[in-house]
Amino acid sequence: MKISSATMGASKRRLSSRGLGGALREQRAKLYIIRRCVVMLVCWHD
């Protein structure tokens, strides 16, 4: 859990410096990565 809290602190600092557009782009990128991982796990066949 320490890693996630450190990551949240870093993203909050970046949000103020990059503005709303950068934060929105970052959130979309994270959602895309998560979605791809879920699809790979669901479609995994041995």
UniProtKB/TrEMBL annotation:
Question: According to Swiss-Prot or TrEMBL, what is its membrane topology?
Answer: Single-pass membrane protein
Q: Give the domain of life.
A: Eukaryota
* GO BP term (any one): shoot system development
| InterPro entries (UniProt xref) | DVL, DVL/RTFL_small_peptides
Q: Where is this region: Disordered?
A: 1-20
Task: Indicate where this protein resides in the cell.
Answer: Cell membrane
| A single cellular component GO annotation | plasma membrane
Q: Which terms are listed as keywords in the entry?
A: Cell membrane, Developmental protein, Membrane, Transmembrane, Transmembrane helix
Q: Which Pfam families match?
A: DVL
Q: Which PANTHER family match?
A: OS01G0525701 PROTEIN, ROTUNDIFOLIA LIKE 8
Q: Which family does it belong to?
A: Belongs to the DVL/RTFL small polypeptides family.
In Swiss-Prot or TrEMBL terms, this protein is called Uncharacterized protein LOC111288397
Source organism of the structure: Durio zibethinus (Durian)
| Gene label | LOC111288397
